[in-house]
Amino acid sequence: MIKKIIVKTTLMMSLVLSSLSYAQQCDDFTNVELRKLRSDEMLNLCQFKGKPLLIVNTASNCGFTDQFEGLEKLHQQYKDKGLVVLGFPSDDFFQEEDDEKDTAKVCFVNYGVTFNMLATTAVRGDDANPIFKHLNEQTSSPNWNFYKYLVSADRKHVTRFNSRTKPLSKELTSEIEKAL
């Protein structure tokens, strides 16, 4: 019994110290912890400090849902060079599954997504998560699903791409290469 308490206390202390460590090294809008899709695991986005981010609002039942395939290819092509792809499922346009397990199935089973997917969240308006609140202030909020936001490694520049911009398009890939 005492052994279990010591192990749990040690784990909790480790998590707290880890969070404090990220907070001390990260003083920008990515200093947030968000829950991963269909998981209890939290992801502190500060761990990606110094790397460009491609942030995408996604949906499981949209005409653009097949862009998951291109996003995964981007992730595979550029992850070793530093690009971090982050997917944010949202029901702001009423095209996301009601149950998170169904969203996860679309992402992980149907499209083989291996990049980080966060729990379903709002990306527009007053309810938007803190990441999208910042992106919306820097550019504007997404008008539909699969808007892409390329954030520079220093977090000073955000370039917004609409739903029609395909993940593997020359327009997007050339900007990614510049950011790397």
From TrEMBL:
Protein name as catalogued: Glutathione peroxidase
Residues spanning the membrane: none
Keywords, alphabetical: Oxidoreductase, Peroxidase, Signal
Pfam family for this entry, one: GSHPx
Active-site residues, Swiss-Prot/TrEMBL: C62
GO MF term (any one): peroxidase activity
Lineage, opening ranks: Bacteria, Pseudomonadati, Pseudomonadota, Gammaproteobacteria, Alteromonadales
Residues making up the signal peptide according to the UniProt record: 1-23
Family of this protein: Belongs to the glutathione peroxidase family.
Example GO BP: cellular response to oxidative stress
CDD domains: GSH_Peroxidase
Alphabetical list of PROSITE patterns matching this protein: GLUTATHIONE_PEROXID_1, GLUTATHIONE_PEROXID_3
